[in-house]
């Protein structure tokens, strides 16, 4: 829970307690409908506390999902690098064919030596 959420929660609790205290103090001294209205109003800050708690849980869940997505993105980047590497290695042989066998990477695994015949 963030600092602002904690401050709001403390304020909600304080307001709920104050309204509950006022409800008890006015019981029997004022018309019943006003006491019931104040009792209902004392429940509203409780909803605020529940809301702040739910928001904090959602923020935690989003943070976990972002972390997981970051790991997946790193894996995808590694896979994309491997595909790109394979394409570059395949381009060596393509370069050999298109240059009439004058350019070929000496490290290419597909390169055959001149002295062998198959």
TrEMBL record:
The chain crosses the membrane at residues 32-50. This is Uncharacterized protein. It comes from the Bacteria. Keywords: Membrane, Transmembrane, Transmembrane helix. The keyword Transmembrane applies.
